[in-house]
Structures are given as structure tokens and as C-alpha cells.
Design a protein that fits this description.
404 residues, alpha/beta, four-stranded parallel β-sheet, 8 strands, 11% strand, disordered N terminus
């Protein structure tokens, strides 16, 4: 899996291989936990597609789920019970949180004909043993995909799929970096839509749209004379270390950082776009699992066992609240707030999410330590109390604007 293709090469070489994989009529396997091996699914001719919470679907009480299941898992099982999911299979994560573990168990019991695979993640921070363990899990996943869909893993397909995923993340990472420099270059909702497309249907077509947007933003950055600044932000975000960053950033409007776990950037953008406009503030960076954390997954190394390479890439993604490493996550957030000149911090928490609620106070303290206003906002996937959430965000943005 040596990815030395230019963008044009990539599109040409992957045309035959990848296009056939993602055309309508092909198979879709749903997933919930964001760190999945996209390239392995595509190499089996299957499109991995994030299962999102539906705002029209009321989660309600599901007597087979545990009492304190989070609102996201309640919403998902309610969608399945209402036959609203059109999928050919589903992958549940193991070892992430109790709610997902319980959801996977109940799902198998309630819907025994569904194709279900459990991909179990190591909790510990990555080392040689955890990478080897997870590579074996990926091998089992590949076997399951082959048995389920009768498509073997072909190495030329894996190469093409890997290049597609790398190109996708590269374009999205650039857009994240450019917005940190100046969020007026691209609205947060547009970025959230592009990330959402990657999570729903990573394909040559959706990649082309993302690259067009990245090219347009790149031209604007060039006209602003900010190529080097954006490059240094981009490189710092990829390294996951902002220590050496000392860039001049746009400060014409207030700069808001938003953090949290399994919150969709689209959902948050939908809540804030109009408010940002009137409040003179912009989200400059999200640190969500479905946003920054999946976008900044490093590319697999080249050569050697493909499962080991993909395992290492996934495990080296920015750490999740479901993993060890809270001190590192808090430190990174402190660096983000200081080095990226944040004026305010919003900590989003999925309702009844234990990992978010455990992590929230520490993240909030990072904002206090940076001496900027902080607000913690519980968000349920149905946005059943949308008016209250919007009011809280609006009040917060107004208070940020009053700060000198
Ligand atoms: S929102 Fe929280 S509790 Fe629910 S599935 Fe995600 S990590 Fe688990």
C-alpha cells in the first residue's frame, strides 16, 4: 500500500476500482464509533456509512436496553425497531462504552437476522502489543466482510481505497487548518457537511467535491498571503502538538472552540450558524469524535502487513473520551485555546453519556485555566429542547462578545 499517486493519478487509477464500489446498489454497512477502517470496507466493495441519530425519531424507553443507556443508543435502536435503517450489516465497537456494548448485545438478540460484527478496540494507549491485537481484529473483520458479501480483499483495491481515504483526509485537514487561520474562509456548516459526506459515503464523487472546496480555499489563502501561516497550522494539527506555533491569526470576530465526544459537527453547526452571524463569533475548531478526531487520523505507513498498518493508523488517531489519556487530551485542549487565540470554549456532552460526563469537568477547567468563558451544554440527538440549547449558546456568545 504505497501511496505515491498524485491527485490526478489517484482519480484515474481509482476510477475503475472505487467508482464501482460506491455506485447506488452497492452494499452499505453501518457503524457508530467513528474510528473504523474505511479502506478495508471499500476494498471489499462495501461502503461504510455512519448511522446518525435521527431528530424525528424519538428514542423513548426501550425496555431491553440498560436503564442508563445514552440518548444516542436509544435513538439508534428505535430507528432499527421502526425499520428506518436500510443497511446490509452493522459493526458495533467493543470496549468503548457500556451503552454501545449493551446496544450491540441487545441488537443481536432483538434482530437475529441482521449481519452484525463486533470490532473490539484496545483501551490502552497504542504500543506494539495493542497494534498487533487490533490488527488481528481487523483481519477478523475482513473475513466477516468476505463471508457476508462474497467479495475477497484484493490488494490493488486496498491500495486504491487507501489513496482515496488519504486524499479525503488531506483535503479536510487543510480546510480545518484554513478555518483556524480565518473562519470566514469557509462556514463551519459547509465544513461539517463535507465531513458528514466522508462519514456517510466516502467515494470518488464526494472526494471530488471536497477537493474542489479545498482548492478554492487554497486560492483565497494564497491571495491573502497566508500560505505559510496555514501550512504551519496544518502541520501542527497533524503533529498534534502546537508548541512551536506562533502564527498571526484573524481576530476580526470572536473565536470559539467547541469540544465533546460523539456529537456530529452538522448537528452543532445547525444549532449555531445563525447565532454566530448575529453574535459576531465563529467556531474556529471542533474537537469532536465525528469531526477533528476522525479527520486527523494519520495515514497508514507503507509496506508490510496491511492490517498492521491500518491498525496503527487508527490507534494513533487523536484520543477519544472512551480511551485512557485524559491528561493528554486536557493538555492538548489547553494548547489549542492558548495557541489558537480562543475567546470562548463550548463543551458539548451527549445526554446520559458517561464518558462525556466524566471528561466534561476537566475540559471545562482547561477553559477556566485559559481565562476564557466556558459553557457546558448537554445535547440530545433529537434536539428535543432545541430552543433551550440555542438560548444557552446565544447567551454564551453574547457574554464572549462583551469580553474585552
Ligand atoms: S454518546 Fe457516549 S455513552 Fe453514547 S455511545 Fe457514544 S460514547 Fe457511548
Amino acid at each position: 500500500m504505497v501511496c505515491q499517486l498524485t491527485r490526478t493519478d489517484l482519480l484515474e487509477s481509482s476510477t475503475q476500482l472505487v467508482r464501482e464500489m460506491v455506485e447506488p446498489g452497492n452494499r452499505f454497512v453501518g457503524y457508530i464509533y467513528p474510528h473504523i477502517p474505511v479502506e478495508i470496507f471499500l476494498a471489499h466493495g462495501v461502503t461504510p456509512s455512519l448511522i446518525r441519530a435521527e431528530s424525528k425519531q424519538r428514542g423513548g424507553f426501550e425496555d431491553s436496553l440498560q436503564t442508563f443507556a445514552c440518548s444516542l443508543t436509544r435513538n439508534l435502536i428505535a430507528q432499527r425497531a421502526g425499520d428506518r435503517l436500510l443497511l446490509d450489516g452493522i459493526v458495533f465497537p467493543g470496549n468503548t462504552c457500556d451503552s454501545l456494548q449493551n446496544l450491540g448485545d441487545v441488537w443481536r438478540y432483538r434482530f437475529p437476522k441482521d449481519r452484525v460484527f463486533r470490532l473490539t478496540y484496545p483501551v490502552a494507549t497504542p504500543d506494539e502489543a495493542t497494534v498487533e491485537y487490533f490488527a488481528e481484529e481487523l483481519r477478523q473483520l475482513s473475513n466477516w466482510l468476505q463471508e457476508s458479501f462474497d467479495v475477497p480483499l484484493l490488494h490493488d483495491r486496498l491500495d486504491a481505497s487507501s489513496c482515496l481515504v488519504i486524499a479525503y483526509r488531506k483535503a479536510l485537514q487543510y480546510l480545518y487548518a484554513a478555518r483556524v487561520y480565518n473562519p470566514l474562509l469557509l462556514s463551519y456548516s459547509r465544513l461539517a457537511d463535507l465531513v458528514g459526506d466522508f462519514l456517510s459515503a466516502p467515494s470518488e464523487d464526494t472526494l471530488a467535491t471536497t477537493e474542489e472546496v479545498a482548492d478554492a480555499v487554497q486560492n483565497e489563502v494564497s491571495e491573502m498571503g497566508a500560505v505559510d501561516t496555514v501550512r504551519s497550522i496544518h502541520e501542527a494539527l497533524i503533529r498534534g502538538s502546537l508548541d512551536s506555533l506562533d502564527s498571526e491569526l484573524d481576530h476580526s470576530r470572536k473565536r470559539i472552540v467547541v469540544t465533546g465526544g460523539m456529537i456530529e459537527p452538522r448537528v452543532f453547526a445547525n444549532l449555531t450558524d445563525e447565532l454566530n452571524e448575529s453574535a459576531g463569533a465563529d467556531v474556529i475548531l471542533d474537537l469532536f469524535s465525528y469531526g477533528y478526531k476522525t479527520t486527523f487520523t494519520p495515514p497508514p505507513a507503507s509496506g508490510g502487513d496491511p492490517f498492521l498498518r491500518v491498525a496503527e493508523s487508527i490507534l494513533r488517531a487523536p484520543l477519544e473520551p472512551t480511551q485512557e489519556g485524559l491528561p493528554q487530551r486536557k493538555q492538548f485542549l489547553e494548547d489549542v485555546l492558548m495557541k489558537l487565540s480562543a475567546d470562548g470554549l463550548i463543551v458539548c456532552e451527549q445526554s446520559f453519556c458517561d464518558p462525556d460526563e466524566f471528561e466534561g469537568p476537566s475540559l471545562g477547567r482547561a477553559g477556566k485555566d485559559a481565562d476564557i468563558p466556558v459553557v457546558r451544554i448537554p445535547i440530545d440527538p433529537e434536539l428535543s429542547d432545541r430552543a433551550r440549547i440555542e438560548t444557552r449558546i446565544q447567551t454564551f456568545l453574547e457574554s464572549v462578545n462583551l469580553e474585552v
